[in-house]
TrEMBL record:
Gene3D superfamilies from the UniProt entry: Electron Transport, Fmn-binding Protein, Chain A
Family: Belongs to the flavoredoxin family.
UniProt entry keywords in alphabetical sequence: Flavoprotein
Keyword ATP-binding: no
Domain Flavin reductase like as annotated: residue spans: 74-199
GO molecular function, one term: FMN binding
UniProt-recorded name of the protein: Flavin reductase like domain-containing protein
Co-factor requirement: FMN
SUPFAM superfamilies for this protein: FMN-binding split barrel (SSF50475)
KW DNA-binding (keyword) present: no
Top-rank taxon: Eukaryota
Length: 276
């Protein structure tokens, strides 16, 4: 689309209207987009001018940015571990990804969870659903560490001994590890530590050793029965599973309804199973 062409044809108006509609979140589904596309062919010139202005302002420029955090959106995980006095701790985190039956956790070296993982090598990764905001918010800005690290004190963290009570959550006995599962979480993974790696070794001295990537191996996974995909022994129904997503410190759910077509989803999940 050339801005100086001086030509407004129907396809230009449709593409501008679609971009603007898409960008402003006017459309929620491909079906809505299509109906806007049809009506866009009747747009008058002043409307088009406004749409074009919007397009230029909202869509066209990319400029460098240096955010303090790059939390683009990952699931919240409630990690349960066992304290030295055999009580249980819960920590919400969101720096987590899975490959095969292993998970990598990005953790502050100064959290109670890290201390517990280093000592016991065991945890449960509990995944809250997107209706569990109250529990996450109750746990936010708490630590099971009595001597609150300076950085956390500055951000208003407080010591909490009994995180289950604070969050209104219930302990459920695990089978393969000592830390308990969280009954309210629809998905739970018992896991053991298989590797601890120091992150940002290329960073400044001041943060040396402060951030760890902790690799855990999932020993057993549980889901609420309603999350099982019908007709399969070992598949989770992604339409039933509503994870809590943290993006730039805000909590989100996934949109309702059927997701857009995914080419990747044509691959049989079993082809990803790694040899034992
Ligand atoms: C939604 C959410 C996501 C978080 N993500 C992380 C994370 O990925 N890594 C981390 O070290 N801390 C994360 N935190 C902060 C920890 O919860 C915090 O360090 C807490 O004090 C840990 O508890 P603990 O000291 O009892 O282990 C997150 C907190 C919230 C509420």
């Amino acid at each position: 689309m050339g801005l100086n062409s001086g030509q407004w044809d129907q396809s230009t108006s449709v593409s501008i209207a679609l971009e603007v509609a898409n960008y402003k979140g006017v459309t929620e589904s491909r079906r809505n987009l299509n109906s806007i596309s049809t009506s866009a062919s009747n747009l008058s010139s002043p409307t088009l001018q406004a749409a074009l202005t919007d397009t230029i302002v909202f869509k066209m420029p990319h400029s460098p940015i240096n955010p303090a955090i790059l939390y683009w959106g990952t699931p919240v995980v409630l990690i349960t571990t066992t304290n030295e006095d055999d009580t249980s701790n819960i920590s919400p985190i969101s720096s987590a990804f899975w490959l095969g039956d292993h998970c990598m956790l990005g953790l502050s070296a100064h959290s109670q969870t890290t201390t517990n993982l280093q000592r016991t090598k065991q945890c449960v990764l509990n995944l809250p659903s997107d209706d569990m905001t109250a529990a996450i918010n109750a746990l936010a800005c708490t630590t099971g560490t009595k001597d609150i690290p300076a950085g956390k004190a500055q951000r208003g963290y407080r010591f909490e001994k009994d995180k289950f009570s604070v969050a209104g959550l219930t302990e459920q006995a695990s089978e393969r590890v000592v830390p308990p599962r969280i009954r309210e979480c629809p998905a739970q993974m018992e896991a053991e530590v298989v590797g601890i790696y120091e992150m940002m070794r290329d960073g400044p001295e001041a943060i040396s050793g402060a951030l760890l990537a902790i690799e855990v191996k999932v020993l057993r996974t549980y889901v609420e029965d309603r999350l099982r995909l019908g007709g399969y022994e070992n598949r989770v129904d992604p339409l039933a599973w509503r994870p809590m997503i943290m993006s730039f410190q805000h909590l989100f759910g996934l949109k309702d309804g059927k997701p857009e077509e995914s080419t990747l989803a044509r691959i049989d999940e079993e082809l990803y199973r790694l040899p034992k």
